């Protein structure tokens, strides 16, 4: 969609079709998308994890970030190539949206695995839901996320989250005021 002088030669549609077909094959039974392979191995295999300080390394899991960005990519793909695996792409998006909605935590956030952590995951989830046509008016998950964001906003109008959110798997908001280092 960008000019050739910015992106160079356009990709052959057949290559895009192959990429879409490959990604379609990776959707897990829960509707989410993992990184290396379909999620679904037995969770007790995690007991074999040799790294004490990192959870969830042995078994592949579905991730909000991977799922949400794939929804965004597939929505754009549908606009550009509406006839390639139309039903499969639409089903993928539908199931991915269900996964995102089901993974929302009680406080309205989502856990992000690739960054710190709840604000990050929530941003990805909202991007995926919005790309799929969800809005504040037609989606309870978005309304709950807006409430979460409003409740976690700092006094200065921004958002910040402690790195402790990740290991504790519970949101830890940065202190409201920092003491200058100098």
Automatic annotation (TrEMBL):
What PROSITE patterns would the database entry show? TERPENE_SYNTHASES (PS01074)
Q: What are the Squalene cyclase C-terminal domain coordinates in residue numbering?
A: 12-169
User: What are the record keywords, sorted?
Assistant: Isomerase, Repeat
Matching InterPro entries: SQ_cyclase_C (IPR032696), Squalene_cyclase (IPR018333), Terpene_synthase_CS (IPR002365), Terpenoid_cyclase/PrenylTrfase (IPR008930)
**Domain of life of the native organism:** Eukaryota
Mind telling me which Pfam families this protein's record contains?
SQHop_cyclase_C
Family classification = Belongs to the terpene cyclase/mutase family.
Name of the protein in question: Squalene cyclase C-terminal domain-containing protein
């Amino acid at each position: 969609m960008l000019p050739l002088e910015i992106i160079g030669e356009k990709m052959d549609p057949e290559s895009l079709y192959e990429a879409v077909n490959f990604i379609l094959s990776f959707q897990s039974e829960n509707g989410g998308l993992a990184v290396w392979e379909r999620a679904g191995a037995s969770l007790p295999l995690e007991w074999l994890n040799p790294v004490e300080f990192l959870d969830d390394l042995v078994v592949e899991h579905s991730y909000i970030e991977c799922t949400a960005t794939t929804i965004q990519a597939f929505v754009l793909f549908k606009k550009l190539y509406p006839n390639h695996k139309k039903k499969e792409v639409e089903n993928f998006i539908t199931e991915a949206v269900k996964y995102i909605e089901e993974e929302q935590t009680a406080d309205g956030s989502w856990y992000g695995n690739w960054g710190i952590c709840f604000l990050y995951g929530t941003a990805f989830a909202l991007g995926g839901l919005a790309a799929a046509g969800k809005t504040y008016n037609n989606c309870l998950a978005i309304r709950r996320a807006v409430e979460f964001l409003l409740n976690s906003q700092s006094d200065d109008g921004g958002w910040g989250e402690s790195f402790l959110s990740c290991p504790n798997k519970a949101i830890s908001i940065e202190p409201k005021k920092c003491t200058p280092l100098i």
